[in-house]
């Protein structure tokens, strides 16, 4: 039984629900089956864990890097609760039924939603294998994963120039001389300095309705945004941020034929998974169809477009490095 269970936990073609149930069962059996738990079982689990860890490292450069730590901490608590429970989460017959699949015919395979779903599933497997490694070493599971705390924003940064702190832009916060944030009709309006880094550009959100903005990309720790601000006529070098979107996943690209055009992909700000409805096809969960947004920014000249591209890539790199730094302890588990 133990041999089959370990092999099950090392498979990559079954749902995380079944893997978590298998993890619970292994934890129940291990104290009574230490003689049967051989070195090759431990090696199988270690190899599977290393492969999963390598995949997770790649997610620190992925579309949902800004939510990676949040998802990991959330799944850590859920997995710990699941495998330490006195009974399985479901009735045995439920475990044998097909896992509920998310279904939407309108979501393409390359969409940010698909990437987010894949990241979430990967985190669940990583957390399970990580906790099983700790348990197999005879250690107690900590309440939270070992993650480095966030650090203050560097003095020389675009975020600092815009008056942002580690919490990022939020309603009801005033930064004297730099940032004033208020909420009107559920729309966040920021007054922020745009003189240093922001670049003039044009964009049409509707056909025939082109608008003029100043473009700015900023990262604050593990978070980041691309901002479109309108310059204030009565306050030089300041503007109102009319549009803000996640920095991660923008996938910036200069147009092949128009060197002043910059294409961006705009994904949702959060993972849009929905709870399973009470009614519907058995074994299937319906979700809302989601389509990533697309921005095409037209800058004044080729050089401005290249500068905007470099700005985005620099801020994405800072964001990715901060996520890697904070995750380093949980990724450096000694095996």
From TrEMBL:
GO cellular component, one term: Golgi apparatus
One GO-annotated biological process of the protein: regulation of autophagosome maturation
Protein name: Uncharacterized protein
InterPro entries according to UniProt: CLEC16A/TT9
